[in-house]
Amino acid sequence: MKNFDIFLKYIERYITRNNDYRVPYDYMTLNGYSLGRMVDYIRFHEGIINNQEKAQLEKIGFKIEQTGRSYKFDFHDVYTRLKNYKQKYGDLRISRDYVEDDGFTLGEKVNQIRNGAIVLTGAQDEDLDNLDFVWEMQETSVKKQTRKLKVNVEKPAAFDFEEY
Asked: What is the predicted pLDDT for the residue at 66?
């Protein structure tokens, strides 16, 4: 694999620090290396690494077998991070490339929520609204009200035509 030595260095450091070989898909090193995505790529693309590289990974405790995608979306974790971000910065205008100190790519999660790649329940949507979540970076109050109206229109109340 091209740049295997770089990957090996980061995965070894991650396993040593966290005592765990399961890397969250969103995990990014402080210098921007997408370790979680590389782990996922290696696990789900058979033949990407050779037998010698596989042996090196197994030696440090990394398990190659497919264990399912790294981690599922954890709304509570993201919600807590959003609350902390708002407390620290005063708003939720989070850019796509924002990465937290622990390597969690909050900006990417926010982008996935904004574009619908992560589907939220009505209660989760409301929780984000109550935090003043910025659904579009250039969202105006009219757009916000329209989006709220759209949610209400999609779930109309029952209507009995025979009464009229």
From this structure: 55
Q: In the prediction, which pLDDT does 96 show? A: 87
pLDDT band at 43 (very low <50, low <70, confident <90, very high): confident
Nearby residues of 63 by Cβ (< 8 Å), 6 or more positions away: 21
Backbone angles phi, psi at 135, to 5 degrees: -75, -35
Backbone φ, ψ for residue 39 (5° rounding): -60, -50
Banded model confidence at residue 45, pLDDT cuts 50, 70, 90: confident
